[in-house]
Specification:
Among the domains are: 50 residues; 53 residues, no CATH class. It is built from 7 helices and no strands.
Length: 161
């Protein structure tokens, strides 16, 4: 699993580890200080000895480059926060298909709805299902029943038991 942080932060961590090793500290001690495994610290030292500073540079992420840039993802978040109603949908419920349509309209990028799921997860968004409640629901009446009627019913049931 890849550690979190930007490429620059990860490189800085590797350089710090090598610097601490050069100061005479042990591999385990350095690993604890930089939050890495001893094996990783050993690999970094070997890479540094073999290739110098270039050995500590971050490697590019494997896989395809994202269709949406970070800037576009930021704009997508703002668009989604406006709500589905602002984009012409009758209900206030986002679906993967609707999000895919918004992405296509605003950025000219086509996503399959299943691909939208990966984009949303990468932005730390999660799937949410609204509670089903009747439109006629009266919250004040429910609270009144919960505080006054329900305790009385429970008390009566205890007396009968």
């Amino acid at each position: 699993m890849r550690p979190t942080g930007t490429a620059e932060e990860l490189e800085r961590r590797r350089r710090r580890a090598v610097s601490l090793l050069d100061q005479g500290r042990g591999v385990r001690e350095v690993a604890g200080m930089v939050g890495a495994s001893p094996a990783a610290v050993t690999r970094w030292r070997q890479a540094y000895e073999k290739r110098g500073e270039a050995g500590l540079c971050a490697k590019p992420h494997p896989g395809r480059t994202p269709k949406l840039s970070l800037k576009q993802r930021g704009k997508l978040i703002r668009l989604l926060k406006l709500g589905p109603g602002q984009h012409g949908y009758r209900t206030e419920l986002w679906t993967l298909k609707r999000v895919a349509e918004v992405i296509r309209k605003h950025f000219g990028v086509r996503y399959d709805p299943s691909g939208v799921w990966h984009v949303l997860r990468a932005m730390d968004w999660s799937c949410q299902k609204p509670e089903r409640r009747a439109r006629e629901r009266d919250e004040k009446a429910i609270e009144r029943w919960r505080k006054k009627d329900w305790p009385r019913i429970k008390k009566r049931a205890k007396k009968r038991a």
